[in-house]
Write a structure and sequence with these properties.
The protein has 14 helices and 15 strands. With 437 residues, the protein is an alpha/beta fold.
Length: 437
């Protein structure tokens, strides 16, 4: 009944019929992945004046309440020659003690409350015996660690004693672009390097993934690529576009989608392009004037992402980089949160049927919320609650994941071994990268 009120969102959970069992830490009871997601998700009551997805989404552009998350930045050199260059990672740190301004030199090119690690600080970073759980975060399109939605999600985790870092997409959040190639929606190399680095640096820590919007798409692609090898204990994704081609066509279909959202995202990417145009112009595949002439996001992807990565069209890029199929290759517990009235990551792109085919993932959809919105009265954001509660519960209460029971889409039990069984490989990708050593 509450969902009949305009600001009370209804909740719906979609998952496999045979729940993934989770072995508990003592003294917690045995549970399943869907049960843990249910227990982590409070009722969703949003601001009464922000009663649809457009209002919730547009409100993200208004000044947000200050959430004082502080970072120290380290710039990594890429270890995979397939995606050479460097990228920045911002590590959450305690707030510095008050001191005269000269004691804390700032870099005007970096976001607020972000300063670079000194070599000595970086070498002293953490201890091998540190067992605090750690969130590794991926932000949305052209964003960074400074985004209000990132800081809002991190605040309750940090308050609970968690460590965290944000992998800034190349060229974003004041980071330098050191090659002629921007990131894209399936560029998983940097997060893979950071996860491996964190595992080696802190072998006692449990690691968790958290992705927003485009970063959610990248995270699911990473989880699918890693499969059984994945060292993350669990992950959460929020407002994932899932099927990029469906989302792009939906934006182009309406005036609001095209002239408000696609134009705004195209403008933000053009600003990022202009900031790094000197470096990007060195890429012989890029026609700078064509990129400067675009208006909408799909045009930007057509003129920059396509040529840069070797895709003939933006549609080919979207189909190859979408994470909807990657979901079927994920082998760690995954909790996905999505608003059905999201005007950017549209409902048509959400892989509802795929969620029913994998026991490793649960989808929670709300009838209201917009794109990375979910604003409540008072300015707080509802999505921070299921994110933090799920991660804290799975870190505190769950020891390990048990092998799924019952047939799944690709299990031996789901086919007759005496008959021909076709094979679907969810991570089969069209793009192949080649480099000259």
């Amino acid at each position: 009944m509450a969902s009949l009120l305009p600001n009370h969102a209804s909740l719906k959970f979609t998952h496999h019929p045979h729940p993934l069992a989770l072995a508990p830490h003592a003294p917690y009871p045995r549970t399943t992945l869907p049960s843990l997601c249910y227990a982590s998700t409070p009722p969703c009551t949003l601001h009464p004046l922000l009663f649809n997805g457009h209002l919730q989404t547009l409100w993200t552009a208004t000044p947000a309440a200050d959430i004082p998350i502080h970072y120290k930045r380290h710039v990594f050199t890429a270890s995979d020659p397939s995606f050479a260059g460097s990228f920045a990672v911002d590590f959450v740190t305690p707030a510095p003690a008050p001191a005269p301004a000269p004691a804390f030199p700032t870099d005007a090119t970096l976001p607020p409350r972000t300063t670079p690690y000194t070599p000595a600080e970086y070498e002293a970073l953490g201890s091998e015996d540190d067992d605090a759980p750690m969130a590794i975060v991926l932000h949305g399109l052209s964003g960074g660690s400074h985004e209000a939605y990132v800081r809002a999600a991190l605040a309750p985790l940090v308050a609970a004693g968690w460590a965290a870092c944000v992998v800034d997409a190349r060229g974003c959040a004041g980071s330098a672009l050191t090659t002629g190639v921007l990131y894209n929606a399936r560029a998983t190399w940097d997060v893979r390097q950071v996860v491996g680095w964190c595992r080696a640096r802190w072998p006692q820590r449990e690691l968790f993934g958290l992705g927003f919007s485009l970063g959610a798409n990248i995270l699911v692609n990473y989880l699918g690529e890693e499969g059984e090898r994945c060292v993350l204990k669990a992950a959460v994704v929020c407002s994932n576009p899932w099927n990029l081609e469906v989302g792009s066509l939906a934006l182009q279909r309406t005036w609001v989608g095209r002239e408000v959202y696609s134009r705004a995202m195209g403008t933000s990417m053009k600003k990022l392009f202009e900031k790094h145009v000197e470096q990007i112009a060195k890429n012989p595949r890029v026609d700078v004037e064509k990129v400067r002439g675009v208006t909408y996001l799909h045009e930007f992807d057509r003129e920059l992402q396509g040529p840069t990565w070797g895709y003939p069209t933006e549609g080919a890029y979207y189909r190859d980089a979408s994470s909807s199929d990657s979901l079927l290759a994920v082998r760690v517990p995954l909790f996905a949160i999505h608003a059905e009235d999201d005007p950017i990551a549209v409902k048509e792109g959400v892989p509802y049927e795929e969620f029913k085919q994998t026991p490793y993932a649960v989808l929670c959809t709300t009838s209201l919320g917009g794109h990375l919105g979910w604003f409540e009265s008072g300015g707080t954001r509802w999505f921070t609650k299921p994110i933090s509660q799920f991660l804290i519960k799975i870190a505190t209460e769950v020891d390990k994941v048990e092998r799924p029971k019952g047939p799944t889409w690709n299990s031996a039990e789901s086919v007759d071994k005496d008959k021909y069984a076709p094979s679907f490989i969810p991570m089969r990708r069209r793009l192949q990268l080649h480099f000259d050593p």
